[in-house]
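$ run holo --ligand "adenosine-5'-triphosphate" --emit tokens
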Amino acid sequence: MGKTLGIIGGGQLGMMIAEAAKKMPQDVSEIIVLDPTENCPASQVGATQIVADFKDKDAIIRLSEKSDIITYEIESGDSDVLKSVEKNAEINPSPEALRIIQDKYLQKTFLRENNIPVSDFVKIENIEDVKNILKEFGYPALLKARRDAYDGRGNYKIDSENNIQEAYDYFKGQKLLLEKFVPFKMEVSVIASRNTKGQIKTYPLVENIHEENILRQTIAPARVSEDVTKKAEAIAEKAMTVLKGAGIFGIEMFVTQDDSIVINEVAPRVHNSGHHSLQSSETSQFEQHLRAILGLKLGSTKLIHNTIMYNILGSKKFQGEYKPLEISEDNLFLKMYGKKISKPLRKLGHFNLVGSNGESIDQLIEKLDTLKPKASVQSI
Ligand code: ATP
Ligand code: MG
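-- output --
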């Protein structure tokens, strides 16, 4: 008899975890998601939904009473509440790992204390702190919300003294940190996993291209030297050995101008830059996450095919219902998330362009350029 899996968050990440779970009926017999949006993506693929806010304590208690094991697709959960329901269900990654990771200041302090490279950062208590630290950091610098940020929405880039007040006011009293700007050559990430028995496996280094602070495409593998790959993978493994908890962790890094590696942030969950694994690898990150939290042996993380993942984002020009995308091509795998309404830059789906015939990354990029117009979202 399989276990009942509870997932906090039933968006696209919860949906793809649920789909992977459906393929493991011996291990997972039922899936329940907690999500505030009725008919959320995960509920469309066979998960039962509790409709409630992610932070609704009673709903989390209810979820824990029904579940054998709980995981999450968002890092904004209340770690104290999760800790308090550990007697009902096993929670992975652990509430303690979540508590550290979900606060960018605590996370970076923790990484720095463990000799893992991060960019310079300072905790901000008031606007005077911002002014003083900028004298040392110089411009540009990033003012960031410590918690609940996603898709760059918790960041404000300060370019000059004239921006300081505006940046500070933008956050309306939230807890903040200030970070030195890293003039990176490339953004990369490693999807890493640890199972409850301590086995660790990492996926190969990938390259991430952002547009307007949102991930637009991931190139697997990253176009960097073997030396950079080795350095980044070693840092990711080191981060995994110090952070507790089982599951997938998305480790975002910068490659600096002199080819050093700096961690930007760690996400305690499956990660957008790991979606390529659905077709590029023997084990998808979603299956791997389940294997990790269920204490099963981790699957192979070998990259079988060069692959580019391209996100389908809502058009900036409208909000509302949109036409189904018509995009079919050899070795292109389109995955839409079942969201009825498009909003500017909302993640509506993605596709993987897979080099099944041994195509190089350059060949895949060329092919992608011809497909991009078909990936634009149009109003109905
Ligand atoms: P996401 O949900 O996309 O991971 P987030 O809201 O948690 O984003 P960050 O990862 O902190 O935000 O930043 C988003 C992007 O902003 C980064 O991917 C990077 O492009 C840029 N950025 C963040 N911090 C820095 C920095 N110190 N120097 C230069 N660029 C940065
Ligand atoms: Mg990020």
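-- notes --
The chain is about 25% helix and 30% strand.
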